[in-house]
Amino acid sequence: MSVRLHTLSNGFRIVTEDMPSLKSATIGIWVDAGARHERVEQNGIAHFLEHMAFKGTAGRSALDIAEAIENVGGYVNAYTSRETTAYYARVLQDDVPLALDVIADILLHPAFDPQEIETERGVILSEIGQTLDTPDDIVFDWLQETAFPDQPMGRPILGPAENVRRFGRADLAAFVQEYYGPEQMILSAAGAVDHEALVRAAETLFGALPRRNAATPVPARFLGGEKRVVKELEQAHFTFALEAPGYRDADVYTSQIFASALGGGMSSRLFQEAREKRGLCYSIFASSSAHEDTGLFTIYAGTRGDQLAGLAELTMTELRRAGEDMRDDEVERARQQMKAGMLMGLESSTARCERLARMVSVWNRVPELDETVAKIDAVTTQKVRGFADSLRRQDTAAMALYGPVDGAPDLDALAAKLGA
Fold first, then answer.
1. Model confidence over 375-402: pLDDT tens digits?
2. In the chain, count of helices (H) and strands (E)?
3. Beta-sheet pairing, 75-80 with 2-7
4. How do residues 337-389 score in pLDDT, each as one tens digit?
5. Which pTM value belongs to this model?
6. Residues with Cβ < 8 Å from 108, sequence gap 6 or more?
7. Distance between CA 132 and CA 112 in Å, rounded?
8. β partners of residue 177
9. Contact 366, 15 (CB under 8 A)
């Protein structure tokens, strides 16, 4: 397999990986523009813009866009994260030029038809309502907001309903003008792809775009705090977070391996102690997410309200104990899980395509898989213990609770238990 990277004179980047065994390919454009790039009055507009992607261009209707890809048996989609918006398609080898033409049309010539804006406004408001009705979704938005209050990193990707209700054509066009410059775009393709042909096509489609000086995102500051929403629900939803390394931090792999060992699967400490041995919950897990300049180490559990206090205290005990007695076999299992998950996931062209774009966005290069595996293998039990100990000694933490949670300990009490 061969990875190649080329940058046009205006900063637009093309990265490809040829996978000779495939007869199909995934191709898309990843834009370095997400929820954290929005001002408070813009919150939700990156996601709104993603919804409008398939609602028509100057030369194609919404139906034309759908039929162009589906008539050749392809699949097209998009998503918004806190730092990225992606537009991509999976098609057969001969239809890669068509897919690129459609995606370029979406990005360069959006119609932003007022009637379609109203239609999608209703769809997004329904999506927001659905999230509010899904406790184990909304509690993570609240945790993010509590960890990073009053700053872009803490705002929800969907945005508040009041913003969505007033966004118009001018707002969408202004965000595109500000953040959809060639330096912010990465054309990524993996599978049965011809690198040179894609470079030529990109030059034709994107080469004339002028450079833009997009605003630098507001640095994230983990401040922490507590949000508790008491409501009559079947389950009490508990989330707890500490600041974790960003994706350029040398400890990012240590953080992820520790999260896996602590609560990444059925063999993890939290699952075994909380669910298997004590029956304190139905679901419990730990994870470590990374962003450009920060990250979150998160523990989630869903349980009965009368079990929440004991469960919350147990999670703190296990988090503290991990810095003292994490075993070699636990770390080795977590390393193997991380490598297997990464390598098995990359058997698809879509996962490869997404990895290419992410690596170019972070490093402006694509590290060899062997390099990444070596970094995972370099994480020792001593490093994991040291990281766990430093994690629990942080000065601030964040917690969000939802449901029958009035009997749960407050954040200060849990932090004291963590530092005991």
1. 999 999 999 999 999 999 999 999 999 9
2. 16, 11
3. unpaired
4. 999 999 998 889 999 999 999 999 999 999 999 999 999 999 999 999 999 99
5. 0.94
6. 205, 206
7. 28
8. none
9. yes
